Amino acid sequence: MAAFTVLSTLPSVTSVVLIVSSVALCAAYYLHKKYSYWAKRGVPYVKPDSWFFGNTKEMIFQRESTTFMFARLYNELAGHKFGGYYRNHKPFLVLRDPELIRLIFVKNFSHFHDRNTPDERDFDPLSRHLLNLRGQRWKNVRYKLTPTFSSGKLKGMHELMQACILELDDYLTKATSGDSKDLNVQDLRELMAKFTTDVIGACAFGLNCNSIRDENSEFRRIGRLIFSFSWRSYIRAIVLTLAPGIVMATKWKSIRPEIENFFMSVLKGAVEHRKSHTEQKRNDFLQLLINIQAEERKQLESNRTQNGTQNGTQNGTQNGTQNGIQNGLQNGHAESVSEKSKDILFDDSVVASNAFIFFIAGFETTASTLSYCLYELALNPDIGEKLYEEVESVKQAHNGTLDYDAVNKELVYMEAVISETLRKYPPASVLGRRCNEAFQIPDTNVVIEEGVGVTVSVYGLHHDPQYFPEPEKFKPERFMGENKDKIVPGSYLPFGDGPRICIGMRFAHYEMKSVLSYIITNYTIHRCNKTVVPLQYDTRSVLHTPVGGVWVQFQKRLKL
Ligand code: HEM
């Protein structure tokens, strides 16, 4: 009986084996075909180390940070102007040659106008911002937002920035004059993140974030949350690359609900406040967004009236717009029903998303640069002293104060110190573009096909001795005088390049120079027993974050 049972199951075992082997063979054939992409085209490439994840396994399993993984690919392709790699089984190209980078990012931008980020989503109200937008939609939004950081607007922000510096002054004065000798030992990442959160809150949204003064500031807590590791975001990122359809079908948002709700309610509050205080003249980013939306609505209304498609006339006044934004932001729904028209560029979702991205991009990148800069000043006191002398002499030439023009134009050594910090520690260590129209690489037979992504390891370039000899040394002189002119175009890209270059670059420079001149004139910065040299980086972090923070000691500067 038992023998009979075994025999009767045999055909099904054979079928299972057959099915499994056929599936395995098909999968192997499929993957082999996918992973032959670069070899077939005669393009040098880095051999994938995983059938499933291509060249990104170490990053996905969090054994290597994103920065170091792309720098490794850059180094493994040494000797080539470009080379292939695979993200999962998708082909990507690493661009190594600065001239080729410029060709793609600047001169042939029309073939590469989008990033590799996922397309904007209707269900994700905070994802439709400049970083993600594509094609004509990106172009239109960028054109409208460009005036945000014009010289006139930056000048107008001088007082707001000074007020945040005074808060920092208050904090550091207490920290350095207290009896407890530990108070003057500070984690720069945290301190600078608090400062830059306050600055972007004040300058872009007219908000008092209070991060320096209040240990439990909600803004700082949310800021930390945005960049902290979460399993939700981690799994989503993997699913997004392997099977984007699942993310779309399940409407799996990129932003955690807590963060989304916080931003929606803050923006709603800010817009409400403006509505009830129309006498206060504002000149900031939020106001620019409000005005743009008002103009757009006015234009649409007049078009509709002209076309006879609308019976009643509405007034596209500022108040009307504020009501629109306000209604749309209620309950986390960024887009009101009446706004589903295709003609609308600045619907509530685009307004909220761009306010959100300005906040995130506005505080983290500058905070990280400032903290690395102060860390290097602690390790290199001679550079700190030279900086101090420059700031003092510019101040003396301007009756003891630094106005907007002096900060911008006269702090030459300061500019070099910041540039060197951005070289050694680029906060955005990888740049990417997606090919939207086939492009033949000059003097080769290689065609970058539509849909293929290109990647630039900014960290790899900035640490390549061919462009920056002794790359681990902190040498601001690289960016002074004729040395600066020798920098190969396309090899130094802390803010990216081409029409999609960072929109906040001038604001960031101005903010960093303003606060550094204040710190350097009032304090000296020192190594302490918590200072780690060299820094060790967190492989789990989305950003290039040092494990355990960046610690230094502040001392009040003794002035004669
Ligand atoms: C040290 C400070 C900063 C660094 C190093 C930095 C770096 C970058 C980089 C590398 C890009 C990508 C450029 C490209 O793809 O070619 C970028 C884009 C962007 N940055 Fe910044 N950034 C900084 C500060 C800021 C600030 C202060 C803001 C806003 C207040 C900002 C807002 C943006 C936005 C909105 C984009 C997208 C631009 C577009 O696609 O049109 N950034 N940034």
Automatic annotation (TrEMBL):
It is a peripheral membrane protein. It is found in: Endoplasmic reticulum membrane; Microsome membrane. Residues 305-332 have a biased composition (Low complexity). GO terms for cellular component: endoplasmic reticulum membrane. Its main location: endoplasmic reticulum. Keywords: Endoplasmic reticulum, Heme, Iron, Membrane, Metal-binding, Microsome, Monooxygenase, Oxidoreductase, Transmembrane, Transmembrane helix. The keyword Iron applies. InterPro entries: Cyt_P450 (IPR001128), Cyt_P450_CS (IPR017972), Cyt_P450_E_grp-I (IPR002401), Cyt_P450_sf (IPR036396), Insect_CytP450_Detox (IPR050476). It holds the Pfam family p450. Its cofactor is heme. It comes from the Eukaryota. The keyword Oxidoreductase applies. Residues 300-333 are annotated as: Disordered. Belongs to the cytochrome P450 family. This is Cytochrome P450.
